[in-house]
Design a protein that fits this description.
By secondary structure, the protein is an alpha/beta fold. It has 18 helices and 19 strands. A hairpin with an 8-residue loop joins strand 12 and strand 13. The relative contact order is 0.10. The C terminus is likely disordered.
Length: 574
């Protein structure tokens, strides 16, 4: 069977503002990324997902686009981007872009025209409605708080925005909008990019009849509930209540018609990929006609990753995929706590991080990694309000004081934890001022986590043979050489009652690999099926590579072990 490049690739997300500062102004840029490509090639990255690089007022950290055809001036020029793309291709890597379909910036020329007058040709490119009873058209909320409608004094009407008021929603029921946005898609694909990660894809359509949600709670109430939640079940309840609150604004059936049309546009160009920021399996369509990849976000929706959690997730997720659909796994991105902060226990973090990245790289599907995870970067909960850049953190600060009566100090602490600045701090390159991200005399756009001085930086870990970075490097390169890990089927061997370790097979024509992951601080001994003639160790964080096992697999604490089944009979792994 022939597999596409995106099925076998490991993707690495780059948050451009924080990755590498090429011109020394304290802001990451395209030149900095280009200068870092040799590092990514050495690491073993196959493809880059570049978070928004477009011109933007930066109200929502670049997800408010003012020009779909350009490059933000602080990041460089279009020629800088073209050079980056050429250098990526020269290293046999791929590059996909973030694409925001749902909304633009309110500074985009389209919206400026749209709000100029009711008769403007661009008026219907956005969603405008008359008010009701002296207020907004209905009781819908913005996901970021407050009404989803903002009054425009010039034209005396309300416009709709699912996100911030500076991010007006496009009207995708207008054929002109479809045409201009598909032209954007073709422009970048024609330039040579390899596809797109589609931001907030479920929010593109909303119920045109604008029915009230009719709930007795709002987004601020949910913030308080989440703030007071103490268990995973309570957090899950808040998520369900939010989904119910916005049920007329998200995941309408029309979005799937649009995705099928978009897939047709992308298929005009060979070997491209569409990745959706959604967990909804419905976005795979019939497995061939909508998105190529949809994130398995439920896997990361827990405080502690356990063997039981993984097996339950894989049983449900893989079992629900339509024929021909390909899984996509991740444990972190620019919107969530960093891997070490989210899933570490403060005692065995080093071991756990190795087990979790091994999980990502050995489960069936395409893995997505986030820049900085390979050196164990952590959330940085700085509390200087003047340094906050995420509007969600600033909103949380205001809510803590207004709704919960918090002191400014306490409000800042909770806002830092709630916001996203904590996981977007600059990449830590070396043990030098600002972690080598920018010159010592320049203040970086976000504060740098001071733990770069404690070995959490690229340069120190490149030199340490037993570092987390070198483990990532070795495992990424091993995965490339192992067909079973790249595209084999998944067969669990350990049961959901097993708490300490995870054991499963990945089987492809010509190769069957056994994967053993010890999630505990105690050694584990596992009996191997008697019908196997042996298992040869191919990769291990502790054991001798090449050794053949026959009866037992002994896993050291937090060991990552992979081996090839020798002449297994079919019954041994079915």
């Amino acid at each position: 069977m022939q597999f596409s490049w995106w099925q076998e690739a490991v993707f690495y997300q780059i948050y451009p503002r924080s990755f590498a500062d090429g011109n020394g102004d304290g802001i990451g840029d395209i030149e900095g990324i280009t200068q870092s490509l040799d590092y990514l090639q050495w690491l073993g990255v196959d493809a880059i997902w570049l978070s928004p690089h477009y011109p933007s007022p930066q109200i929502d950290c670049g997800y408010d686009i003012a020009d779909y055809y350009g490059v933000a001036p602080e990041y460089g020029t279009l020629e800088d981007f073209r050079r980056l793309l050429r250098e990526v291709k020269r290293r046999n890597m791929r590059l996909i872009l973030d694409l925001v379909l749902n909304h633009t910036s309110d500074q985009h020329p389209w919206f400026r025209e749209s709000r100029a007058s009711r008769e403007n040709p661009h008026r219907d490119w956005y969603i405008w409605r008359e008010g009701r009873n002296g207020g907004p058209p209905n009781d819908w909320y913005s996901t970021f708080g407050g009404s989803a409608w903002t009054w425009d004094t010039t034209t005396q009407m309300y416009y709709y925005h699912f996100f911030f008021k500076e991010q007006p929603d496009l009207n995708w029921r207008n054929p002109e909008v479809k045409k201009v946005m598909f032209d954007v898609v073709r422009y970048w694909l024609d330039m040579g990019v390899d596809g797109f990660r589609l931001d907030a894809v479920g929010t593109i359509f909303e119920d045109p009849y604008l029915p009230d949600h009719g709930k007795n709670y709002g987004v601020d109430d949910l913030y308080i509930m989440l703030r007071n939640a103490r268990t995973q079940e309570e957090q899950e309840l808040v998520r369900r209540l939010f989904d119910d609150l916005v049920r007329f604004q998200v995941d309408l059936p029309e979005v799937h018609d649009l995705m099928r049309t978009l897939r047709g546009v992308v298929d005009e160009f060979p070997d491209k990929v569409l990745v959706g920021e959604s967990e909804q399996i419905a976005f795979y369509g019939n497995g061939q006609d909508e998105l190529h990849l949809v994130f398995n976000f439920p896997l990361m929706r827990t405080r502690r990753i356990t063997p039981q959690w993984v097996l339950q997730n894989q049983r449900e997720r893989l079992g629900a995929l339509p024929p021909g659909a390909w899984p996509c796994n991740t444990l972190g991105n620019h919107d969530t706590s960093r891997l070490r902060s989210a899933f570490g226990d403060g005692v065995n973090d080093e071991g756990l991080m190795r087990v979790l990245v091994a999980l990502m790289l050995t489960l069936k599907g395409t893995p997505f990694l986030y820049n900085g995870e390979e050196i164990g970067m952590t959330d940085y909960l700085f509390t200087e309000i003047s340094r906050f850049r995420d509007p969600l953190a600033l909103r949380a600060y205001e809510l803590e004081i207004r709704l919960l009566g918090a002191s400014p100090t306490e409000a800042a602490r909770h806002a830092a934890a709630y916001g996203r600045d904590k996981c977007r701090t600059p990449m830590q390159w070396r043990n030098a001022p600002h972690a080598g991200f920018c010159p010592a005399h320049v203040e970086p756009w976000l504060p740098v986590n001071p733990n770069y001085r404690e070995g959490i930086n690229v340069a120190d870990q490149e030199q340490a043979r037993d570092s987390l970075l070198r483990f990532y490097h070795d495992l990424l390169h091993f995965r490339r050489q192992c067909p079973a890990l790249r595209h084999g089927d998944f067969h669990p061997l350990s049961g959901e009652e097993t708490e300490e370790y995870l054991l499963f097979l990945r089987s492809a024509p010509g190769q069957t690999c056994l994967v053993g992951l010890n999630f505990s601080a105690q050694p584990q001994e596992v009996s191997l099926p008697t019908e196997w003639k042996g298992v040869r160790c191919l990769f291990s964080s502790h054991s001798v590579v090449g050794r053949v096992l026959h009866q037992y697999l002994k896993l050291a604490p937090f060991e990552v072990w992979m081996g090839e089944i020798i002449n297994a009979e079919k019954g041994g792994f079915s």
